[in-house]
C-alpha cells in the first residue's frame, strides 16, 4: 500500500513542483542545492562536495518546514533524506541557504505557499526525542539528561573515539597529527596546568571513561576520584582503571557534583560546563571552590559561544536540544570567567582551543562513517544519523568561529610561575622527569 501511495504522489506534477521550488531557492539565494529526487532526477551544483537525496515526494516539505533546524535534522535522522559525501559541507551550505532566503514578507509567503503545495509528510512518532520531566537542572532531571546522551552501548563510543576514549576537544599541533597523539597532548596539557605531582589528590568532575584520571595516575603519580552520572561511563571506566592496574589509586563514582564532599589538591572539569546550565554557573563555581584545598588549582574546560551577548539556555526548540543534549546550555567565555571570580577563585589563565575541536570532530565523523555497519548493529541507524549530523554541524560551528573552547585555570589562594612555558606539556615532562 505504501508503494502505491508513493507512486501516486510521485506523479510528474509533484516532481515539477519540487524542481520549481529548487529553481526559486537558487534565484533567491544564489545556491543550486545538489539534489537527487526520489525518481533519480538530479538538480543543482555538483562541485559542493555533497548531494542531498529526497527519498520521497514529501521529503522536501519535511526538510524545509519550520522550525527549520529541528525539521531538517529530524528529516535526516528518520531517513526522509540522505546526505551523500561531505556532511560538514552540507551543514555549511544549509547555513548559507538559510541566510540567503528573502527577508521580505511577500517573498517568504510565496516560498511558503510553494512548500505547502507539496505532499504532506506522514505523521510519525518521534521515538528518539528526549522527554525530560521535573525542574530543570534538578538532580533527578540532570541524571535523566546525562543518561539520554551517554548511556548508549559502550561499543558505540568505541567506534569513533580514540583508544583512550577521550570525549572532548583534543589539542592538535598540526592538522596532520593523529587524534590519539592530540588527545594525549590535551591530557598532558591539563595535568601540566594543574601542576600535578606524585601524591596529589585529583578530582575529575564529569570524568567520562576515566581517561584523565588514568593518564594522571600513570604519568604523574596522583590519586584520583572521578564522578559521572552515566552508568555506561562509570561501569566501563572502572573496568579500564582495573585493566590499567590502578584500582588502588583511582576511584570512579556515580555521583553529582552537588553530592560531593572532602577536599582535593586539584580539580579538573572537562566538558561539564555545557551540562551545568547558564543560571547555575555561580553555584557550580562556588561548589568547586569548597572542594579544592587552599593553594589548590581548578581547571574548567568547556564549549563557549563566541558571541559575547548570546546565551543558549537549553530551552530552545532545536535539533541539538531535542535529540542530543537535552537541557544543555552555552555561554560566552566571559560568563565562565565571571562565575570563577565570584566564587571567589583567583583567575590565573585563559586559553581557547576552538580550532582543535573542529579537527577533533572531523576525525570522529570519519571514524563513525567508516564504522557505519557496526554502529547500526550495536545501536541503530537513527543513532548513527543523529550523531553524524550533530558532529558535522558542531565541526562547522567551530571552524567558522561561532563556537569556541575555553580552558579557564583558577586557584584558591594559589600562585603559578611567571610566563606560560611551565604549562606546556613537553616542558612539564622535562622539569619533572
Tags for this model:
single chain; 433 residues; alpha/beta; Rossmann fold; 2 domains; 7-stranded mixed β-sheet; 4-stranded mixed β-sheet; 19 helices; 48% helix; 15% strand; disordered C terminus
Radius of gyration over all CA atoms, rounded: 24 Å
The number of distinct helices, counting runs of at least 4 residues, comes to 19
- Beta-strand content estimate: 15-25%
CATH superfamily of the largest domain: Vaccinia Virus protein VP39
Give the distance, in angstroms, between the N- and C-terminal Cα atoms: 72 Å
Q: Runs with pLDDT <50, length 5+?
A: 7-11, 427-433
Short description:
The protein is 48% helix and 15% strand. The chain is built from 19 helices and 11 strands.
Question: Would you mind describing this structure in some detail?
Answer:
The chain has helices at 2-9, 12-29, 59-64, 68-77, 87-100, 105-116, 139-150, 154-158, 179-193, 211-220, 231-243, 273-276, 281-291, 319-324, 333-342, 354-370, 372-378, 381-400, 425-432; strands spanning 35-36, 42-43, 50-54, 81-85, 201-205, 223-228, 250-254, 264-270, 292-305, 346-352, 403-411. With 433 residues, the protein is α/β, with parallel strands linked by helices. The protein folds into two domains: 2-116, no CATH class; 139-432, Rossmann fold (3-Layer(aba) Sandwich). Helix 10 links the parallel strand 5 and strand 6. Helix 13 (281-291) packs across helix 15 (333-342), helix 16 (354-370) packs antiparallel against helix 18 and helix 17 (372-378) crosses helix 18.
Amino acid at each position: 500500500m505504501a508503494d502505491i501511495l508513493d507512486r501516486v504522489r510521485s506523479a510528474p506534477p509533484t516532481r515539477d513542483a519540487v524542481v520549481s521550488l529548487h529553481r526559486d531557492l537558487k534565484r533567491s539565494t544564489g545556491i543550486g542545492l545538489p539534489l537527487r529526487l526520489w525518481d533519480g532526477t538530479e538538480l543543482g551544483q555538483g562541485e559542493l562536495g555533497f548531494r542531498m537525496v529526497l527519498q520521497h515526494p514529501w521529503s522536501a516539505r519535511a526538510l524545509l518546514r519550520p522550525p527549520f533546524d529541528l525539521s531538517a535534522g529530524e528529516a535526516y535522522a528518520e531517513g526522509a533524506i540522505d546526505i551523500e559525501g561531505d556532511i560538514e559541507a552540507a551543514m555549511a551550505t544549509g547555513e548559507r541557504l538559510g541566510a540567503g532566503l528573502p527577508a521580505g514578507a511577500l517573498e517568504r509567503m510565496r516560498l511558503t505557499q510553494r512548500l505547502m503545495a507539496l505532499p504532506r509528510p506522514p505523521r510519525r512518532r518521534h521515538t528518539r526525542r528526549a522527554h525530560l520531566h521535573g525542574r530543570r537542572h534538578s538532580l533527578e532531571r540532570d541524571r535523566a539528561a546525562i543518561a539520554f546522551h551517554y548511556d548508549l552501548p559502550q561499543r558505540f563510543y568505541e567506534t569513533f573515539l580514540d583508544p583512550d576514549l577521550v570525549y572532548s576537544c583534543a589539542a592538535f599541533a598540526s592538522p596532520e597529527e593523529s587524534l590519539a597523539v592530540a588527545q594525549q597532548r590535551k591530557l598532558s596539557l591539563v595535568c601540566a596546568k594543574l601542576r600535578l605531582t606524585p601524591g596529589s589528590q585529583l578530582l575529575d568532575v564529569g570524568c567520562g571513561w576515566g581517561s584523565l584520571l588514568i593518564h594522571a595516575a600513570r604519568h604523574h603519580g596522583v590519586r584520583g576520584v572521578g564522578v559521572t552520572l552515566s552508568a555506561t561511563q562509570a561501569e566501563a571506566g572502572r573496568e579500564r582503571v582495573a585493566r590499567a592496574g590502578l584500582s588502588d589509586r583511582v576511584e570512579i563514582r556515580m555521583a553529582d557534583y552537588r553530592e560531593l564532599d572532602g577536599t582535593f589538591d586539584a580539580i579538573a572539569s572537562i566538558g561539564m560546563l555545557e551540562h551545568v546550565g547558564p543560571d547555575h554557573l555561580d553555584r557550580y563555581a562556588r561548589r568547586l571552590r569548597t572542594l579544592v584545598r587552599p593553594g589548590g588549582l581548578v581547571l574548567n574546560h568547556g564549549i563557549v559561544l563566541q558571541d559575547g551577548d548570546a546565551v543558549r539556555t537549553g530551552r530552545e526548540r532545536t535539533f541539538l536540544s531535542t535529540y542530543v543534549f537535552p537541557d544543555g546550555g552555552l555561554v560566552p567565555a566571559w560568563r565562565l570567567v565571571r562565575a570563577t571570580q565570584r566564587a571567589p577563585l583567583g583567575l590565573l589563565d585563559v586559553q581557547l582551543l576552538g580550532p582543535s575541536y573542529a579537527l577533533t570532530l572531523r576525525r570522529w565523523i570519519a571514524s563513525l562513517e567508516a564504522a557505519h555497519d557496526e554502529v547500526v548493529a550495536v545501536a541503530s541507524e537513527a543513532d548513527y544519523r543523529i550523531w553524524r549530523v550533530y558532529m558535522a554541524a558542531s565541526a562547522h560551528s567551530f571552524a567558522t568561529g561561532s563556537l569556541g573552547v575555553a580552558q579557564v585555570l583558577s586557584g584558591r589562594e594559589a600562585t603559578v610561575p611567571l610566563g606560560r612555558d611551565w604549562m606546556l606539556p613537553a616542558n612539564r615532562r622535562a622539569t619533572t622527569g
